[in-house]
Specification:
There is one protein chain. This protein has three helices and 15 strands. With 271 residues, it is mainly β. The protein has a 15-stranded antiparallel sheet that branches.
Length: 271
């Protein structure tokens, strides 16, 4: 009987290790203490106007007793944007030091609506178990739970992971399918490599960048719809220099203002 218990335990641990291994990824792009700042621009009736600021940071922290990376992104619209649309977003995620997703939260004040999405990850049963929760602007809370034999991520953890992707051998149009969770469910998405471009940041410098577009499958339109395009430095840091957001109410762009605490030399700057 004891041998049977040991065998069952070993099989469960092996299954858990398989799923967890699918979700791990080697970080080569950032280190604890990285801090990035951005200017935000909003398109209103064909006019681009400065609309606020954003900041992103990564620090080593703890989550449920284990070492983890904590990544946060905050956006703050200014009074000029508030006259048309209030935007106050705070995104947060935790991942293990080998990039396995642990937690995601998005608090979004958009217009007069404030919603909170949360995602918790568990790998104990040999599957990627996802608990999702959305608190709507009226206080209503909706919960969902899903399990998968493959890895699922969220938009922030996907972003951290994508920074360590190696573009060697990629050709324009290369696609990578992903499954992305938020508080309302799991979406079928894809990352598309759109080639290399020269992008001028708001620090006055120009960088050689890789263009990556994230799209999600839209059931009603029966096609993939663009959500955002990231222009990241074509070096080992893959720092976002420009971010294009395709919103329901218009479009927004974020341009890099400053960077500090980078892990690798910034070799993509064009002199």
């Amino acid at each position: 009987m004891n041998r049977l218990k040991y065998l069952i335990t070993a099989l469960l641990l092996a299954a858990t290790s398989v799923v967890t291994a699918q979700c791990t990824f080697k970080n080569t792009a950032f280190k604890s203490g990285e801090f990035l700042t951005y200017n935000l621009y909003f398109n209103w009736k064909f006019v681009w106007a400065k609309a606020g600021t954003a900041s992103m940071s990564v620090v080593q922290s703890r989550f449920n007793g284990e070492n983890a990376y904590r990544c946060s992104l905050t956006t703050r619209g200014n009074g000029r944007l508030d006259n048309y649309f209030v935007m106050r977003d705070t995104l947060l995620c935790y991942a293990t030091t080998d990039m396995t997703p642990l937690y995601f939260r998005k608090g979004a004040l958009e217009g007069d609506r404030y919603t909170v999405d949360q995602v918790w990850y568990d790998y104990a049963k040999g599957k990627c178990s996802i608990r999702m929760q959305r608190r709507r602007h009226n206080g209503e809370i909706r919960k969902k739970h899903e399990e998968s034999s493959t890895c699922i991520t969220d938009m922030m953890n996907l972003f951290l992971r994508a920074r360590s992707f190696s573009p060697k051998g990629w050709k324009k149009g290369y696609e990578l399918p992903v499954k992305v969770a938020d508080g309302n469910g799991i979406d079928d998405g894809k990352l598309t490599f759109d080639g290399i471009e020269k992008i001028k940041a708001d620090n006055g410098k120009t960088y050689r960048c890789l263009a990556l577009t994230y799209s999600e499958w839209n059931e009603s339109k029966n096609k993939y719809v663009k959500i955002s395009t990231f222009f990241v430095t074509d070096d080992s840091n893959h720092i976002p220099v420009r971010i294009d957001l395709f919103l329901k109410f218009g479009a927004a762009k974020a341009f890099l203002v400053s960077m500090k605490g980078t892990r690798n030399p910034v070799t993509s700057e064009i002199k």
